[in-house]
Design a protein that fits this description.
This protein has about 475 residues and is mainly alpha-helical. Helix content is about 65%, strand content about 0%. It contains 22 helices and no strands. The longest helix has about 30 residues. It is elongated, with a radius of gyration of 42 Å. About 10% of the residues have low confidence.
Amino acid sequence: MKTCWQILGIEATTEIDVIRQAYLALLPSFHPETDPQGFKQLREAYENALQETKSPATAVVEEDPDTPWVNSLREIFRDLLADKERRFQPQAWQEFIQQINKLSISQVEKARWWLCAIAMQTSPISYSCLKLLSDRLAWEQGSDNRDIDAEEVEDLLFEIRRGDLFDYSQLLHLPMAAQNQTIVLYEALESTFFVNTRYFMQLMAQHGPWIIPGDLRFHRRLLRWFSSLHLGVAELLPIAQTWQEAEPDNATPGYYHLAQRVFCGEGDSLLAELCGQWREHPSTQLDALLLRWCRQHRPDAFPLLVMAIEAREQVDINGEPLLYIPGSSVRTCMLWAEALHYGVLSPLSENFIARRLNYGAPTMGEEHSQHPNWPLYQVADCLACAEEPSEALLQGMVAKLDAPDICPLDAIIIRGLLVQAAAVVTPCEAVTADEAKATQPHTEESGGGFGLWLVIKIIFFIGVIGHLLSRFMP
């Protein structure tokens, strides 16, 4: 059947004048009385040509023979991603890749970035399964397709390298909406854990009942998340213990096990292990655990423990002790103020903190002398005032440290106070000796008793330091 342009005898055009001239030139040859059929055909061709000028037809282009195959592959891929049960199963993805293997090289190349674009628009998606497709289509080699954003491709490849948070196939028994909600929540928590702590905590607080998949690697991730928020979850204790038993030389699971026991409120049964871990692997994280336990179960010892821990932290880059007045660090003062705010301290502890934070407050009086920690607070008060504790107090502390039944927490406090006494008092004595040497004549008659007393004191402090070293060393 001829087209209107063939009947008019001209090329397809949108010029009305050209069409009209062609029509008028042919009109005498098709008279309506002698050739009514020809006239009718010419008239319809003319009207159709004029209609084409108003809405020109799309040029007919021969279809690429690969197009049907590519379109079919894309539909199969979309069906896989929408399938509730197959989308998280590696076997199903392997079967889809087998469909790709049946295509020609040109067909695969044309489908390569189309499939990548579909994957980028799909959420949630199993990145572990998607890695199978990425390896087959070599997405890692980069995109030379201008229709796809290279940065978006790189973001997708980063997620593929990281993999899934857990085995998503463990959610297949749930409705599809529950599957998606669970995965999206956990991916949001993971992405904000190191980047935006406040948003991470809001997500943890707002979400209702959790669906916990039975994935060991993911359970350890939960252990890290809840421990970072100082939240105790009893169900995480066996996970931490199993991890610790599996990796006894790894300090990380040991810390998480202790942390969950502290956050769950375990009492005296934890103290010896917690103190032992603190001595073997001292760190700010274990400082925080020990202080939290003490504040919960031994609040009266908390101010002293803060001061003892301060002694461990006041060292230079080479680990040598720094000269400072004990109890003067900002962190120590803030922890003391926080403890005072809780209102669970004894009058002795409150009086000690009030004196340290407000030098106008009265000193500790004899009315507190019956408190078990009275000698320790006396030594701590002297050190915080840059004064020398009496030898009787120091000797009493050393004797208590040697007791076989000493409480591990008391041992940490006493060691810390003795270290501070050795580090602070000894330099003061050295200054006193220099002043005495400068002001007194160098004769055998000039103050021999003072020099002997100084030597006795120095020997005493050397003995204290030696004792501490022997206790710290294995």
